[in-house]
Amino acid sequence: MKLTKRNYYSKKADIEYMSYSQFKTFDECPAKAMAILKGKHKIEETEAMLVGSYIDAWLDGELRKFREQHPEIFNSRTGELKANFKLAEDLCGVIKKDEYLYSQLKGKRQVIITGNIAGVPFKGKIDSLTAENIVDGKVLKDCNDTWQNGEKKPFYKANGYDIQGAIYKTIYKQMTGKNLPFRLGVVTKEKYPDKRIFEFSDETIETALQEVIAKAPVYQSIKNGELEPWHCGVCDYCRSQRKLSEETIEIL
Ligand SMILES: [Zn+2]
User: Fold this and answer.
1) Are 212 and 163 in contact (CB under 8 A)?
2) How far is the CA of 127 from the centre of ligand 1 (A)?
3) Domain ranges (residues) in the chain
4) Digits of tens for pLDDT over the chain (252 positions)?
């Protein structure tokens, strides 16, 4: 199928193509990823996610439409923006004030790309494509290292942004022959918001790409029904599916 703005997030597109977020969900829990694909589990849209979408809509020049489609961002009693979206407004101001950051995020917006990695069809949507860079906008709590599974990780590893970079760089190059750097344009939700631009080195991208090459074909086999998805046992989906019996008693 040919991907368009309208069908990019459709079930059909998610079945036909793997995306960075689908890869990440498989990485977290294949059973959850399959349940989402089959419509048996929903990704909850949190207010934090909607803050990112608000800023994207502003950069896309579609804020009016976004506000109409999301009445929940307003306080129903006062009609004012809720606190999180007042913050989103402020962050738009922060971006606007920094000429360089603004120019990086104001390239060609929401460019759809497709390609193939290790035999697996992939799709991606570039937030901002400038003449020289692929730029993804991120709204983060902060840019500090975080603890994940007992390991201290840099923010980009904890969120898999290196994986996103590897996928986007690779399929963009397949489409155009151009090897563009992958950058993150970041604003933080700290009291005094930080602004940062990160560019991934070839080495970081190559390491992440090797991980995609190793894992994506396995996830694709699960999508094709050739391999049973395993349960991580700890995610929201696994908790929702847990059934207790004598066999599941945990001895301490
Ligand atoms: Zn799970």
Assistant:
1) yes
2) 29
3) 28-241
4) 999 999 999 999 999 999 999 999 999 999 999 999 999 999 888 888 999 999 999 999 999 999 999 999 999 999 999 999 999 999 999 999 999 999 999 999 999 999 999 999 999 999 999 999 999 999 999 999 999 889 999 999 999 999 999 999 999 999 999 999 999 999 999 999 999 999 999 999 999 999 999 999 999 999 999 999 999 999 999 999 999 999 999 999
Reference 159, options 144, 172, 181; nearest CA is 144
β-strand pairing of 134-140 with 182-188: parallel
Cα of 40 from ligand 1 centre, angstroms = 13
pTM to 2 decimal places: 0.94
* Cα of 247 from ligand 1 centre, angstroms: 19
Q: Per CATH, which fold does 28-241 belong to?
A: Lambda Exonuclease; Chain A (3.90.320)
Which two structure tokens, joined as six digits, stand for 71? 């009445």
Is the Cβ–Cβ distance between 7 and 123 less than 8 Å?
no
Ligand 1 mean position to 219 CA, how many Å? 14
